[in-house]
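Suppose you are handed a protein chain with no further information: no name, no annotation, nothing but its sequence. What can you learn? This example shows the usual starting point.
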Amino acid sequence: MLATSVIIPCFNAAATLARTLDSCIGQPEAKQIIVVDDGSTDGSQHIAARYAAQCARVKPLLLNQNSGAARARNWGAMHADFDILAFLDADDEYLPGALHDATSFLAGNPHQPSIRLNIEFCGFPEKITSHPAFEKLGGLLAGTVPSSLVIRRPAFMALGGFPSDEIFRTAGGEDMPLSKALFTLFGNTRFDGRKAVRMHFHPRIHAERFFSINMGFSADPAPEQTAALIAEQMRIMQRAVNGMQTLRELLNGPAAKI
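A reasonable first move is to predict its three-dimensional structure. Written in structure tokens, the prediction is:
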């Protein structure tokens, strides 16, 4: 069993944070659970503090102003005590055995930097879940969303973490460059069997927008912004790939252990 630091970026998630924390506490591998409060104005800070008082594994961190989920995740990674990082959004939850499966894979595959967990989409509209492309598109999302990611910290840092450029803060999509870099370099391996992370539907969730556009239910409301976002994602992905390749050369070639 590899000890893991779970990082939860949190902004005004008082309605769901307790559920998320309970799911983490139920994972024996989660030796540290870092809640990074990103300037919440609801009761999120109090919930994190209450859990920390009851469970020594929970560590609250506070950002004084809202800086975006990417910065919150990266800040949490900088304060992690363990070399395996798992990221979980404050409205998602782990299912039993999620981190056991992930850490077992990483222990048995020392040259793999990461593993993606499979996603259960909970409460999504029937028109989405009954669509013939739902399984395929759901698999694509499971390979990119932060809540599916369990990664070795040296690899995460070498790839630059989650980009916190302003375009990602306003338009989302900061998870894509890291996913594309992992895919280009290592295949971005994902479990495609049992579900390990439950993503709960709520209005304006990014996953609904992704499904709706790709299933033809709606058009992209800002195609120019999307084009700029994709271009920035590709630029940052290539920078991450180049940086990792340079690191590999410094560590004596592509077979170097991640």
